[in-house]
Specification:
Helix content: 25-40%
Oligomer: single chain
Strand content: 15-25%
Shape: globular
């Protein structure tokens, strides 16, 4: 499993942004699908490819980009590379909590960065700061990240998404607002995020506000469903033959969050 993504990896998969800009004429629209590290839920790449198969009914294959995305810095860098190709739909398969998408959930890169930052604060005999946690959480796209200089630079782009574009976070809890972080004493790490920019909006609402596009997210946990004989079903194990795989909220459906 890759710990992150760079454009060299994307190019090897036939998904290089600059290559797409050469092939496609100005103002062409398409779909971008990011998938994070599934960990205990399996390979999120399966879900991304299943969605791609569904979207092929509407879009030609060269207008659907599927990319492994486990690093928030690369998330912003990748989006900044688009020039003539507009995003009609952005889909992200990821673990989430109300305050962020955990793209690199349980991957080694994220865990090492977190541990190093925490240990450094212990060596300095002080509490870790809000800024240090935001920087250390390279595998988490936090609501707080939308306030950073790198993000605000991307926000100036008004041509990244088509006018009617939508964003959807496939997975759990991305629609929960007022998220409060906590630690198990005596540890102090996540709680540092409560010292600024509170109350936290949900990552779904923060994304809608940042990109000014309608965003969909769940307010509960989620589970795996398989498309069998035209119907989505919850099964104990993956069937040999199925028409698709998806993540669906345990309660209700994905909710809509409009830009403010």
């Amino acid at each position: 499993m890759m710990n992150g993504l760079n454009l060299i990896v994307a190019e090897a998969q036939g998904r290089d942004v600059s290559h797409l800009d050469i092939l496609l004429q100005v103002k062409n629209k398409g779909i971008l699908i990011f998938y994070g590290n599934g960990a205990d839920l399996g390979d999120f790449g399966q879900f991304a490819e299943s969605l791609k198969k569904e979207k092929l009914k509407k879009y030609p294959k060269e207008k659907i980009i599927v990319v492994s995305m486990q690093n928030k810095n690369t998330f912003f860098e990748y989006l900044s590379k688009f020039k003539t190709f507009q995003i009609d739909e952005l889909h992200v398969f990821s673990h989430a909590a109300g305050g962020g998408l955990y793209l690199g959930y349980h991957n080694n890169e994220s865990q090492v960065s977190r541990t190093n930052a925490y240990n450094q604060s212990l060596q300095l005999k002080r509490k870790i700061t809000y800024e240090e946690v935001v920087e250390a959480e390279i595998g988490a796209l936090l609501t707080d990240d939308y306030l950073t200089a790198k993000a605000l630079k991307l926000k100036k782009r008004n041509d990244l998404f088509s006018s009617n574009a939508t964003i959807k976070f496939w997975g759990c809890n991305s629609g929960i607002s007022n998220w409060t972080y906590s630690d198990t004493p005596p540890a102090y790490y996540w709680s540092a995020l409560n010292t600024k920019n509170t109350p936290k909006p949900s990552i779904a609402q923060a994304t809608a506000d940042f990109f000014q596009r309608e965003t969909f997210g769940a307010t509960s946990g989620s589970h795996i469903e398989f498309l069998v004989n035209g119907k989505w079903e919850i099964l104990k194990k993956q069937p040999k033959n199925h028409g698709g795989i998806r993540l669906h909220p345990d309660k209700g459906n994905y909710n809509s969050y409009k830009p403010k």
